[in-house]
Amino acid sequence: MRYASPNTDGSKVQYASRYENFIGGELVAPAKGRYFENVSPVTGKVFCEIARSTEEDVERALDAAHGARVKWGKTPAAERSAMLNRIADAMEANLERLAVSESWDNGKPVRETLAADLPLAIDHFRYFAGVLRAEEGSMAELDEHTVAYHLKEPLGVVAQIIPWNFPLLMAAWKLAPALAAGNCVVLKPAEQTPATIMLFAELVADILPPGVLNVVQGFGVEAGKPLAQNRRVAKVAFTGETTTGRLIMQYASENLIPVTLELGGKSPNIFFADVMAKDDAFRQKALEGFAMFALNQGEVCTCPSRALVEASIYDDFMKLAEARTRAIEPGHPLDTDTRIGAQASNDQLEKILSYIDIGKKEGAKLRAGGERVKLPGELEGGYYVAPTIFEGENRMRIFQEEIFGPVVSVARFEGFDQAIEIANDTLYGLGAGVWTRSMHDAFRAGRAIEAGRVWTNCYHLYPAHAAFGGYKHSGVGRENHKMMLDHYQQTKNLLVSYDENPMGFF
Amino acid sequence: MAVHATDEARALIRSLIEEHGPLMFHQSGGCCDGSAPMCYPRGELKLGARDVELGEIEGCPFYMGGDQYELWKHTELTLDVVPGRGAGFSLEAPRGVRFLIRSDVCAPSSRG
User: Is-contact B103 A354, C-beta < 8 A?
Assistant: First the structure.
C-alpha cells in the first residue's frame, strides 16, 4: 500500500506551515524571528519552515531547563519511570503518523520506520523506564563508626545534538537515559530533519513537566555551537562526524564537562568460507547480511560498507551477493514495498556520487549500481542512488572513508589472520559483522576485531540492553544499555561518622 | 598532494570572509556530515600535533588529521560547493549550500 503524502487529503500527517522552538513546555518563536525552509528528500521540495534559533534561544531554553532542574531531579524514580512509559504509549498510539513523518523528512522507506525506527524508539523509553526502577547506590561499613553511602545524582542540565539519519530514534537514544537519570535536556535536532521531533514534542507536552525537555531548532553554527559551548550545561552528548566531535570535546574542555560522542565507522562485514558450506537458510541470511549496506540508504554509522569475503568462496558468493543487491531498487518511500528510499539531502547525494567517482579513479571495479537514479512523477527532484558494489583493496579511499550511502567496497582475504588484519586496518571501530558456522572462529574473530559492536551471524540489530559505541575514532561512551545512566549521573559520597567523640587532632 | 578550488567555492569563501573574517578548513571523517570539509573562523578548531596543512585557498589554510592524510596523500583535492543543508558547525550551512571535496588520483611523480 502507499501512504498518502503529508499535507494531502487523507494523509496521516498534516504539518503546520511553520514550527517554533519547544521551550518550557510551550511553542516559542525564535528571538530573531527567523526561519529556514525544510525540504523533503522524497521530492526535493520544501514542506514547512522551522525556527532558525540563535544564542538567545539557547539561553531561553537553558533558563527553562534550569528552572525545572531541581524539582525534576528530586522526582521519585517511580514517577519519572511512569512518565517515560506514558511517552512510549503516546508514541505507540501515533505510530503510523510518526513513521510517515520520519519517512518524509529523512527519505527512508516507511517500511523501515514502521518496522524499525518507531518500535525501537518506543521500546527505548520503556527500557529506561524499567531499568530506572532497579537503580540503587551502595553503602559500605568502613569501620564500626564510619559508613560510606554512594548515591547517584543527575548531572543537571545536559545538551544533546543529534543527527539526521534516524531522527526520532536518535532523539530517543539520547533523551530516554538522560531523562530517566533525572536530567533536564536541551536538544538540538539536525537541521536536515527537524520535523518529526515537533510532532513528538506536541505529544510530550502533556506528559513531562515544563522545562524538562526543550527543543531548539536551527543551524549547527548558529544554535548547536552556542549550546555546546555554554557554561550552563553539565555535559554534551553528540552523534555526528569526527571534526565536529573534536570541536565539541574542545568546547567541553573549556567548561571542564564530560562528553559522549558517536562519530561513525567503516564497519567490516566478514564472510568466512563456511557460510557457503551448505545451500540453506543460513547462507541466505549471510547474503542478506551482505546486502545490509543498503539499509537506510547506507546512512548508518555502522553501515557494513566494507565486505571482506574469503578468497575460496569469493566468486560464488559474490555472484549471489550481486544478484541480491541488484534486486534492491529505489522506489517511493511511502510505498510499503519500497526497500530503499532517498538519500537525506542534495549534498549527501553529491558526496556519495563524488566517492563513486574517486572509487573508479582509484581503479576499483564497479560491479553494480554506481549512479543516481531518476524516479518519475513527484519523485523526480528526489535524491535516489542505486545500491553500488565496488571491488578493490583496503587502502583505497572508498575502503577507508565513510561514504554514508548505499555503497559497499568488497575485498578478498586469505585465512583468519588476514581477515582480522584488514578488518582492523581502519581509523574507526564502531561496528563489525562476522559470518561463520564455527562458534570458535566467531568468538575469536569477535574478540580480535577492534570495534564496540560485533554482530555475529546477524547485522543491524539495535535492541535496548545491548551496549553500543565506538573504539578509536568512532567515539567515546556507550548507548542503549543501563550503563548509560552512569553517563548522565554523578556519584555523591556521604561519608558519615557515627562516633560522637573528637578525633584528637585539634 | 594539493588542494584546488572551483570558482564557485572561491566566491563563496570570499563572501564568508566578508561575513566572518579569516577562515580555516578541516576535512572531517566519520558519519552524517563527515567525509567533507568543515569551514570555521580561523583558530576556532584547536589544531594538534597530528594535523597536516595541505595548502591554502583564498588565504585560508586547509587542514586534515594526520591519520587521514596518510590515506589521502595519493589524491588531488578540489574544493567545490553544492546546494545543501549541512553540516556540523560549518559556516556556509545557513546559506543553503555545502562545501564538498572532489578528488583525482595524483600522477605518480606528484604523490606524497
Answer: yes
* Distance of alpha carbon A307 from the chain centroid: 22
A263 in B contact zone (CB under 8 Å): yes
Mean pLDDT of A39-59: 97
CA distance A419 to B81: 38
pLDDT of residue B31: 84
Q: Which residue has the higher pLDDT, B110 or A160?
A: A160
Rounded Cα–Cα distance for residues B13 and B10 (Å): 5
What phi and psi values does residue A246 have, to the nearest 5 degrees?
-60, -45
H helix or E strand, kind and range, residue A439:
helix A439-448
Q: How far is CA A40 from CA A6, A103, A106, A108, B4, in A?
A: 10, 9, 7, 11, 32
DSSP secondary structure string for all residues of A284-307: HHHHHHHHGGGGGGG-STT---EE
Residue keyed to cell 558456522 = A437
What pTM was estimated for this model as a whole? 0.95
Of the candidates A239, A240, A261, A241, the residue with the CA atom closest to the CA atom of residue A249: A261
* Residue A262 annotated in active site: yes
- Catalytic annotation present for A401: no
Report the distance separating Cα A101 and Cα A108, nearest Å: 10
Number of CB atoms found within 10 A of residue B72's CB: 21
- In A215-301, where does DSSP find H-type helix? 225-229, 242-255, 281-291
| Digit-coded pLDDT (tens) for A421-477 | 999 999 999 999 999 999 999 999 999 999 999 999 999 999 999 999 999 999 999
CA A199 to chain centre: 19
Q: What is the CB-side half-sphere exposure of residue A402 using CA atoms within 13 A?
A: 33
Task: Give the count of Cβ contacts less than 8 A between chain A and B.
Answer: 163
- Residue B34 touches partner A, C-beta closer than 8 Å: yes
Q: Does A346 touch chain B (CB under 8 A)?
A: yes
- Any idea which residue has 500500500 for its cell? A1
Q: Which of residues 204-223 of A touch B (CB under 8 A)?
A: 219-222
pLDDT grade, residue B111 (50/70/90)? very low
Mean pLDDT of A101-128: 97
pLDDT of residue B109: 54
- Top residue of B44, B85, B101 to mutate, by most chain A CBs within 10 Å, is B85
What is the tens place of the pLDDT at every residue in A65-92?
A: 999 999 999 999 999 999 999 999 999 9
Report the sign of the C-alpha dihedral through residues A426, A432, A433, A439, in that order.
Answer: positive
Contact state of A397 with B102 under an 8 Å Cβ cutoff: no
